[in-house]
Design a protein that fits this description.
The chain has one domain. It is built from eleven helices and no strands. With 242 residues, it is mostly helical.
Length: 242
């Protein structure tokens, strides 16, 4: 998801910069809110999907390796969420004329990474997983610092229903369906490659259907995406959006 995250983060800079310069705080809040929500809509299914199929995906990509690398991917999967938030929030902060905030936030995060990685990898029962935990913590700390700064300086409020409950309901549904579909297809086909690819496609389809069914995505959020207008026209044509 990194390429999409970067595109969305870059697209936020000019619109927020213009609104901020014109002192249009309402517009700044709207653009920032839409950007953060859109990033969550993209990175949450990526993280939950990677977690649901961690071992099958790594077995597909690295068939000669042991099953332990699947556990590594599972441990690192949540990083996709925080890294996505960092890209979006970096765009917002640059638009606000605060380019040093992301630098400071990531520097603090890296301090956590060094300390945790050094400490945890020295524990035999944790070993290399300490590096994954350190990386995850670094991104989480940096994303949280940026989020709190934006929330405070723009005096923003975030709806728990829109930013937490609806996205979690959608990805948890997808997670369960993906786990079940993999188990069923593997039992029938006895092929990790086919079962993994089919489960990924099913998971993506379920995610989009559930997200649109519960009203988890609006027109203005879709238009922020790369090729957003084309995606919106397609969804409207399929009668998945008004």
């Amino acid at each position: 998801p990194v390429f999409i995250d970067q595109a969305i983060g870059m697209s936020l800079v000019p619109s927020i910069s213009e609104a901020y310069a014109l002192n249009q705080r309402g517009r700044v809040k709207k653009e920032a809110r839409n950007g953060i929500k859109l990033i969550l809509i993209i990175v949450l299914p990526c993280a939950f999907g990677l977690a649901a199929l961690a071992t099958p995906i790594m077995s597909l990509l690295y068939p000669s390796e042991t099953g332990a690398i699947g556990k590594m991917l599972f441990a690192c999967a949540p990083s996709a969420i925080f890294l996505g938030l960092i890209y979006a929030q970096n765009g917002i902060l640059q638009g606000m004329g605060k380019p040093m905030v992301p630098v400071i936030a990531l520097a603090i995060g890296m301090v956590f990474k060094v300390i945790l990685s050094y400490t945890l990898t020295g524990i035999p029962s944790i070993n290399i997983f300490g590096s994954a935990i350190g990386t995850l913590t670094a991104y989480a700390v940096a994303a949280l610092i940026e989020f709190l700064y934006i929330k405070k300086h723009l005096n923003m409020k975030f709806s728990k229903k829109e930013f937490l409950l609806k996205p979690l309901l959608t990805v948890i549904t997808m997670f369960v369906v993906v786990k079940m579909s993999y188990a069923l297809t593997f039992k029938i086909l006895a092929s990790n490659t086919l079962s993994t690819l089919i489960s990924i496609m099913i998971g993506g389809l379920v995610y989009v259907i559930v997200l649109l069914a519960i009203g988890g995505m609006r027109k203005e959020e879709i238009l922020l995406m790369p090729k957003g207008e084309k995606i919106y026209r397609m969804l409207k044509k399929l009668k998945l959006m008004n």
